[in-house]
Amino acid sequence: MSFLAAASVLLLLEAATASPAFTPFPDFQQLNVQELLSASKSHFPDEYRNFFNEHQLSEESLGNRAKYRVKLIHRDRMPVPDSFVPANLSSRFRDRMARDVRRVETLSLRLSAEKAGALGDKGGFYGVDDFGSDVVSGMDQGSGEYFVRIGVGSPPRSQYMVIDSGSDIVWVQCQPCSQCYRQTDPVFDPAESATFNAVPCSSSVCDRLENAGCHSGRCRYEVSYGDGSFTKGTLALETLTFGKMTVQDVAIGCGHMNRGMFVGAAGLLGLGGGSMSFVGQLGGQTGGAFGYCLVSRGTGESGSLEFGREEMPVGAAWVPLVQNPRSPSFYYVGLSGLGVGGIRVPIPDDAFALGDLGLGGVVMDTGTAVTRFPGPVYNALRDAFASQTTNLPGASPISIFDTCYDLYGFVTVRVPTVSFYFTGGPILTLPARNFLIPVDDAGTFCFAFAPSGSALSIIGNIQQEGIQVSIDAANGFVGFGPNVC
Asked: Looking at domain 3-480, does it have CATH number 2.40.70.10?
């Protein structure tokens, strides 16, 4: 059965045990300190080493359609050799924050109309000299945080892929590989696939790539990142497999030269809003609708990544998507305010406005870990939280976090709620584990927000963990589901 014959796909992921709230919620909640510390200390447990070998797939008949399930895990629990990722929490935290800073810098650069114009005068958005692609990729040297396993080619070769809502390209490392970083699985060899078809330069698919290159009649792509990492190679049509379901003729980048630290992943599965992303290529077959639930740290529950309008949750709180013509690949949402302990934080009415030049606004991003707000907004949020946590022992700032607490010896602590006030009225109150996180093995927890250094706001994956997020791009809404996922 091909994907084009189906109305939707359901991919099961790991998710959270705590749920968000859109109904009246207590001003304070309990944070289970010991549970989070225990979960963070477990590194590459046996169940994850064989994560995709047991119960990898299941299938259900749903009338004239089917749903298929695969697993998705956080990068810190990738079943790869220990040399890929530091074993202790402190080292993993420092690496994660370093990746996060690079990603935010890259996003801010790309979403700055003034800087984009300046770079464009030099022969391409990313400064590519010979040929390049203006295809958006939100991933900056391994900053993507979540991985899925899919089959590439025919017969399918299983590969770990990063999922990224800020990317508009699907790519994998390919043989012959003149420059490749280390990955878990053997590098994909297109010569062994019966369905691999290089895209000719004259193809309309190649035309979707701005500044696409051409070599020996084949369409070439290149995506470079702010820190010098890149992928480049041949654009091709290939079959992707999710369990027993095949997705035929997907345009993918077959990367023969790649650089970056992607922690074992073979490439990237872009879920952005552009026509070259996996979602964009599915087009009318899914009605431009999909949803996801991100893995929560240290949990073994299941959530969902859904393709198709029929899978949109009933009873979700729907928030308008905001269009940014300068950056159509990103999912902007209408945010009107913030709350701490049930009290609205005093910030300007236009703090989250998207300007006429495409500056500012609020982006939902799966590849950024920590939510960023403009400096004055962050300061107001932090001060409001700190004023209601004076009973907790303080700790020194760590990395990008300036508000931390020494919770060594605590079993649980009482903390004020943190809420997002969305345009149109919905208020999303976050689970405590989504804004106060462990950063070392000694019981230090930090307030997981940071200043963006610009007018841009980014809702990161820590704040999204365990929450059903549904994107209905065709109708211009993002939904937050009512159920634990």
From this structure: yes
